[in-house]
């Protein structure tokens, strides 16, 4: 159970809200580079943290992210003409550079003098890896560019997709932290082989430990910038099989790996308080993804989704009851009757309503990970609001992190036992069984 | 395809407007949470949080082999009786953990299918392998390291 004021604090991310200000201390993924595919291409609407923006790529190749609406009379610049050095509003011809600065107001006699005082709010838009990232906060506090491993390995080793999720970001994040749902919803419970059926997970030795021990024990450990959530199962005599999920503030999670399959994870980015982007990535630290892997990812396997062509909305969505198949639910082939990990998660998280009323929840002791994550988010937002305390998780040292799957002696702390396994190290393979 | 249904009969009901129709009634407290400290240091933490207005939570320490729990008033009560109508046991310990008592209480919780969670308070040197070994088999979930605030937040979250 959460007090209503704390639920509001954690779920509201618009300008001026405590959690919104916290998010504005982090670089967030905004677009896939494919969405602005070439110099001078059409602009793209962006909504993030309850702000409506327009992303442009000028004919010179400069990226910009600015207020969507023209300073003159509020026309959406999505209708704008991308021209040399910027974008021009088609209504009365006001033109803006990539940084939102007005550079031409044709109706004004003293055009250049007038322009000086007209600037649309704008934010940096920077390519790191296959994504375009933005930072919506105080420029004086801008952290270094993100160094998440999925975005820094060569392009052929990484794949990122995104899908529109129709609920508050925290509901989606909490699914990423709540490891105890995996056995049920995705694994199919006692009779399922949900994970073995997915080409991006099949064949790992770890899968056998999963099947052999359906009731994992959990351990939650703090790490600079977030938490490590360890799920522990029995392995060979005197040993445990650990699957460890890192969470880095505020909205980055990774899934523990299986065998030599790629590592994967998510960013849960607020669009507004009732919608978010689920960014899903897969990468291998030391080898290119195979054509088969890439095809499976594009086809919606693993953590990815099949989207309506030309959009980022999943084919299975709330307008068609997520294409639930009651027969497969009955036989247990898909535990919830919904196909694929991504939609299994989104269907249930959306069903809770756009912003779930956490005063009505009935948490149990095994929800400690969620309780702890909420505590850290609340404290970070309050410390920033009340004391200007710089939050953790927005610097490279906290971002060079990996998920881990490992077998360790029974008396070892999974953190010490794993050594450097949690550190992203260029050229070094992941620790996985 | 079935005939068109009203919005409340399909997934589209997941709107803010429809969410407002989630029926409202008071939630019961957790059946009964037992918070047990397994060493003196842990007992200090437990005593520090017990004065909040909890629902039905009860607070103890577990000296000796653990077949009897000690209430904060210093009264010894048989373990079996105290677990009789409980649904979760929160185990609190430090490196000085009384492993024998953990095993007794943990096993008793296990046979009764009572959920267990452990909070391990670290000292400067962190937590030792023995501490983990003592509690791991018996705590479904461990927060390590944890502090007094964590205990309070956990108890609040589960409506103890
Ligand atoms: S069982 Fe967890 S939400 Fe229903
Ligand atoms: Fe999930």
UniProtKB/TrEMBL annotation, chain A:
Residues 27-134 form the Rieske domain. One of its GO terms (molecular function) is dioxygenase activity. Gene3D superfamilies: Naphthalene 1,2-dioxygenase Alpha Subunit, Chain A, domain 1 (3.90.380.10), Rieske [2Fe-2S] iron-sulphur domain (2.102.10.10). Keywords: 2Fe-2S, Dioxygenase, Iron, Iron-sulfur, Metal-binding, Oxidoreductase. PANTHER family: BLR4922 PROTEIN (PTHR21266:SF59), IRON-SULFUR DOMAIN CONTAINING PROTEIN (PTHR21266). This is Aromatic ring-hydroxylating dioxygenase subunit alpha.
From TrEMBL, chain B:
This is 3-methyl-2-oxobutanoate hydroxymethyltransferase.
């Amino acid at each position: 159970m959460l007090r209503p004021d704390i639920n509001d604090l954690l779920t509201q991310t618009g300008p001026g809200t405590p959690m919104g200000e916290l998010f504005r201390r982090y670089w967030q993924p905004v677009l896939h580079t494919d969405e602005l595919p070439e110099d001078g291409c059409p602009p793209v609407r962006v909504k993030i943290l309850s702000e409506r923006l327009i992303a442009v790529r000028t004919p010179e190749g400069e990226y910009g992210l600015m207020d969507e609406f023209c300073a003159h009379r509020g026309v959406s610049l999505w209708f704008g003409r991308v021209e040399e050095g910027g974008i021009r509003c088609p209504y009365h011809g006001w033109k803006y550079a990539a940084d939102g600065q007005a550079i031409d107001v044709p109706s004004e006699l003293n055009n250049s003098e007038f322009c000086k005082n007209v600037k649309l709010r704008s934010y940096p838009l920077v390519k790191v890896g296959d994504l375009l990232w933005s930072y919506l906060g105080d420029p004086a506090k801008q952290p270094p560019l993100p160094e998440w491993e999925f975005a820094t390995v060569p392009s052929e080793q990484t794949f990122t997709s995104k899908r529109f999720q129709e609920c508050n970001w925290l509901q989606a994040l909490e699914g990423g932290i709540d490891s105890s749902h995996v056995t049920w919803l995705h694994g199919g419970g006692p009779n399922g082989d949900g994970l073995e059926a997915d080409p991006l997970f099949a064949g790992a030795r770890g899968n056998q430990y999963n099947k052999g021990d359906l009731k994992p024990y959990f351990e939650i450990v703090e790490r600079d910038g977030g938490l490590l959530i360890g799920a522990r199962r029995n392995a060979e005599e005197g040993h445990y099989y650990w699957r460890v999920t890192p969470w880095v503030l505020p909205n980055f999670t990774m899934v523990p790996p299986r065998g030599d399959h790629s590592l994967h994870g998510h960013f849960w980015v607020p669009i507004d308080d009732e919608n978010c982007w689920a960014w899903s990535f897969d990468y291998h630290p030391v080898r290119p993804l195979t054509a088969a892997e890439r095809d499976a990812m594009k086809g919606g396997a693993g953590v990815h989704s099949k989207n309506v062509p030309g959009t980022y909305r999943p084919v299975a969505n709330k307008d068609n009851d997520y294409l639930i198949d009651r027969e497969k639910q009955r036989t247990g082939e898909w535990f919830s009757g919904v196909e694929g990990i991504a939609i299994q998660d989104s269907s249930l998280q959306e069903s809770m309503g756009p912003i779930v009323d956490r005063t009505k929840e009935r948490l149990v002791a095994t929800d400690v990970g969620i309780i702890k994550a909420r505590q850290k988010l609340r404290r970070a937002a309050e410390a920033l609001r009340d004391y200007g305390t710089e939050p953790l998780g927005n610097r490279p040292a906290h971002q060079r992190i990996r998920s881990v799957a490992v077998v360790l002696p029974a008396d070892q702390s999974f953190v010490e036992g794993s050594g450097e396994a949690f550190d992203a190290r260029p050229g070094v393979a992941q620790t996985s069984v | 395809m079935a005939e068109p249904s009203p919005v409340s009969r399909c997934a589209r009901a997941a709107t803010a407007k429809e969410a407002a129709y989630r029926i409202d009634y008071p939630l019961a407290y957790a059946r009964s949470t037992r918070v047990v400290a397994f060493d003196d240091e842990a007992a200090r933490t437990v005593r520090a949080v017990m004065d909040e207005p909890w629902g039905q939570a009860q607070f103890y320490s577990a000296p000796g082999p653990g077949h009897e729990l000690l209430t904060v008033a210093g009264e010894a009560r048989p373990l079996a009786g105290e677990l009789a109508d409980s649904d979760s046991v929160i185990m609190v310990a430090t490196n000085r953990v009384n492993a024998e008592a953990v095993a007794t209480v943990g096993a008793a919780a296990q046979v009764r299918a009572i959920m267990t969670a452990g909070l391990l308070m670290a000292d400067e040197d962190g937590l030792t392998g023995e501490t983990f070994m003592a509690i791991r088999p018996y705590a479904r979930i461990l927060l390590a390291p944890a502090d007094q605030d964590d205990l309070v937040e956990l108890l609040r979250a589960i409506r103890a």
